[in-house]
Amino acid sequence: MSYDNFNKILELVYARSPLQKKKIKKSLSAQDGSFFSSAEEFSVNYINYLQSEQIPLEYAVDAYLKMCGNMLKSQISFMKTGKYPVEISGEAYENVYSKETEMKSYMVGLALSQFLWSSHYRIYSYLVNIFRNNSDTISSYLEIGPGHGLFLEKAMTHLKKDAELTVVDISATSIEITRSIMRFFHQADFGRIKFHNVNFLELTLDELYDFIMMGEVIEHVNNPDKFLVKVKNLLSENGRAFISTCVNCPSIDHVYHFNTVEEIRDMLNACGLQIRDEQALPVEDLPIEEIIDRRITINYCALVGRA
Ligand SMILES: C[S@@+](CC[C@H](N)C(=O)[O-])C[C@H]1O[C@@H](n2cnc3c(N)ncnc32)[C@H](O)[C@@H]1O
What integer is the mean pLDDT of 282-305? Predict the structure, then answer.
């Protein structure tokens, strides 16, 4: 099998950033054939979607590199101060979520990271397997903070044909990107999705959900516990939620600092959520003692249910 489309993305990244070239090549050397097949399938589809939106691939690659550059700056400041650059979520809203140009670039860059960062790919493929293995038990699906829309697209691909999907995001740009991705890949089923452009905490929902997806949202808010309690209260009796977040992960819009994986687990438990399965994925391939000592980012995700 040829990986022309994935290679096209890689070549553009490599030509623009020797640092990314080094990091990505190292991480790709540990991947197997199934990764490259998935990466090629993603690349064909995403490049087609970008074309349908008249977005050049070069824009997407620049967006990815801009996001990496912003993360590096935040990381350098974190190493000096021990703090994330933003203290209140309102600032993240003002600086990023409400600014169309900024948010669009961020979300397109984040979409590419799903196949350029091994920890994001592991979370992505883990979630797709959950959708595949549990689709017959899910009739109602809620997603909080879809951002780039890729996880909602996968949910629609794998869930039952009569499942109802509800989406909430505080950013009008995220909602627009998610709408466009769903129109492109699932035009016939687009009518099954309800979109809400509002702060999740301000949204009143009257139903319970069999599956709730909240990927990389709780580190963006000052009160993650309120989000988790609300998720717990919205789960149906045997419902499951997929929550992802990160430890020591400074970024232009990260507000809540989890210092350890244990802190995340404690908060999930305190909010009435029982961890059924989890993954803790350091972003560097180093001994865990060094990851902890040097406060290197750990991506974390958990499949949870009501305790
Ligand atoms: C980093 S993106 C996550 C995208 C995707 N879920 C993922 O895991 O890659 C965070 C998303 O959460 C949204 N968000 C942040 N605060 C929110 C809030 N209070 N209510 C709803 N959405 C929120 C942002 O607008 C953004 O789309």
Answer: 96
C-beta separation of 109 from 59 below 8 A:
no
Residue nearest to atom 8 of ligand 1 (CA): 215
Structure tokens at 17: 């950033």
Which residue owns the Cα nearest ligand 1 atom 22? 169
Could you state, in order of their start, the residue ranges of all structural domains in the chain? 4-116, 118-306
CATH of domain 118-306: 3.40.50.150
Q: Helix or strand or coil: residue 256?
A: coil
Rounded to whole angstroms, the Cα distance separating 221 from 97 reads: 12
The encoded tokens of residue 91 equal: 């600032």
Nearest CA to ligand 1 atom 4: 147
> Which tens digit of pLDDT belongs to each residue from 30-42?
999 999 999 999 9
Q: Is residue 1 predicted with pLDDT exceeding 90?
A: no
CB 47 within 8 A of CB 111: no
Of 123, 146, 116, 78, which Cα lies nearest the Cα of 301?
123
Residue whose pair of structure tokens reads 């995340």 in the numeric block: 264
